[in-house]
Amino acid sequence: MVDPEGRQVILVVEDEESYQDALSVGLTVEGFVVLAAKTLAEARLLLTSSHPDLVLLDVMLPDGSGVDFCREVTAQSRTPVIMVSARSSEVDVVLGLEIGAADYVTKPYRLRELVARMRAVLRRPAPSNSEDDAVNFGDITMDFVRRTVTRRGVDIDLSRKEFDLLALFASRLGQVVTRETCLDALWWGLQLSDTRTLDTHVKRLRQKIEQDPANPRHLVTIRGVGFRLDA
To answer: Which CATH number goes with the domain that contains 113?
Structure first.
């Protein structure tokens, strides 16, 4: 949805009135346009008619599971989903992220933290037209829409986070992506002084996309700055 004032549109799918009202007011103050749905049926209609920039999705809804709806959204569109739920177990969080959610926030939450997470997700690069649907580097093709990476037609199996990290690099092919940018986009809240998680994911990516991971041709390190994906 294109707002006349250029504001980003957020679809809030939440059946608890207290949370929905607070989000509507708080996010409006933060400069967003808020669309509200209390059921999955309403959410589907608004998703189709309004094309929001981001979905805030409760897990437990009166007419179905937010988990199933998240699968629908991520399979059919590029709209990012942040799951918001009282379920805070590690299993619930991991499940939410594995099915494609961009982030998982547990109730109760602070609005300032939620907004910061939303802005981090919204800053993640996303191809905006058909000519950007895929990127080639070497003999590898990355399809953003189908979320696939192939080498000469053979699938390369990547985890969700590995794909998102590679997509960040691929969207800026030939440009240096700083460590700060990687952490801000994919690991909100992780301190720059602790980048072992980022380094581990880069190492795994090289093992999967490089012919010689010890001497990478594509995903190269720019010492003291970050990484660059070369064609």
So the answer is: 3.40.50.2300
Is 168 contained in some domain? Answer: yes
What pLDDT tens digit does each residue of the chain (231 aa) get? 555 567 899 999 999 988 899 999 999 999 999 999 999 999 999 998 888 999 999 988 999 888 889 888 887 778 899 988 877 677 667 777 777 788 888 888 889 889 988 988 887 765 444 445 788 888 999 988 778 899 988 999 998 888 889 988 988 888 898 888 888 777 765 555 567 888 899 999 999 999 999 999 999 999 888 999 998
* 3-state secondary structure (DSSP) of residue 207: helix
Residues 105, 173 within the same domain? no
pTM of the full structure: 0.59
First to last CA, the chain: 34
Give me the domain span that covers residue 192.
Answer: 130-229
CA distance 77 to 69: 12
Number of domains in the chain: 2
- Cβ neighbors of 12 (< 8 A, separation 6 or more) are 20, 23, 24, 27, 34, 35, 36, 37, 56
